[in-house]
Design a protein that fits this description.
Length: 411
Amino acid sequence: MKIFISYRRAEDNATYVVGTLRKSLVEAFPNEVFRDTYDIPGGSDWREVLKREIEGCQVMLVIIGPQWANLKNASGQKRLEDPQDITAWEVEAGLRRSIERPATLIPVLVLGAQVPGMGDLPERLRPLLDKNLVTIRNFPDYEHDMEKLIKDIRTSVGFSVNDIEIDDAFEPRTVYVAQGPFQFGSSPEEETPSTIPQHSVELPAFRIGIAPVTNAQYAVFVQETGTRAMPILGWVGQVPRKDQLDHPVAGVTFKEARDYCAWLSKKSVREFILPNEAQWEKACRAGSVSRYPWGMDPALERSNHGKASLAPVNAYPAQNDFGMLDLVGNVRQWTSSLWGESRAKPEVFTYPWQNDRRNDVNASSTILRVVRGCSFAEDAGNLSCTNRKGQLPTDAGWTGAGIGFRVAMKI
């Protein structure tokens, strides 16, 4: 996620205000904020840099001060009317991007500026007035206004779990995982044949379910699609038991998990998929290189491990710094990644991990898929972030300890 800040440097005090605003944004969105001129490397072709950053941003903030619309150049022409004016070019490009490839453009009034009138803007920039404006006031109101702006940004790109409006009756809550690299696989001291070597993998941003899909959430899918709930689920016919609504659904095939994601995408108008195993592990690690989601200590009390049966997804505290639940120690979880044809070891799809044909969701059902996490009945050593196994897509596990899944969302 990239935030592009466009502003008019010639305005009195604008540079200072933008500097303060940028600092607040960087605290909320580390490494995601680009400020015109300030973040252009020396010696770079600044036009190319600006073009690249605008085309790649998900949010553009147009900072409007009191003189922004009416400043004139040396010949007396309004700068916004000048075909060579960089600010006008940035805003026009941002408006175009917000239409062609969905991005959010937010006009931000500072220093007591008023909303420009229709006659203050050239025709090509007038769509700016169709955007809902945000006002950033001086102290003591600055913190309150910035908090609202940050919330608006997060909502616009699906950044914060608390800022996405969902229907709790059927849609899983998700958490944002930022773009960037992470250490994938086991460290030398915890070496296992199928999880080495440890290496760096970079992924684009995505969202992932805070918890595995529950019986209650899966039941809506079953009822609306006519999918048969198999006996392995432990339901009463086609309905989950009332005391197990918040348990993870356990006993679904790979295809059933995929079908759920396709149904959820249509119902919620967001694009849901099964996470690939790199997404699953990056979310599990939550920025750390620890062996377990919560740290280096096995800490068996952090999960349902060793108990006699499945537990609700929220029976234990969050297992990592992303606030995720039930990553390990309750139910195994499907990913979209291929393991290979031999259950003993992944002969073809070995590490280093790549975004290649190992993530082909339409591959033959004779090829095993990677399952992540571990069930409550497995050995404690399987509680690690890197634990992985191969499972036939047509398998659903065994009664009482079937395979579940969590969703991912494209953003």
